[in-house]
Amino acid sequence: MDLKEKLLLIQENEYQAPADAFELVQEMLHNIGTLDAQLRDELIYTTLSHWIPGSTLTTYELEHILTTVLDHRHLLYQLGEAQADSVFTRSFSMLVIPLLFIRHTESPFLSSGRIHQIKDAVFHNVREERDYRGYDETKGWAHAIAHAADALEDLAQSNELHEADLTTILDLVYEKITISERVYSDGEDERMVKPVICILNRNILSQKYIQEWIQRFGTVEKDTEFLPAFRQKNNIKNFLKSLYFRIRHNAVHDAALCSTIEETLYKVEPVYYSS
Question: Considering the entire predicted model, what is its pTM?
Answer without folding.
Answer: 0.96
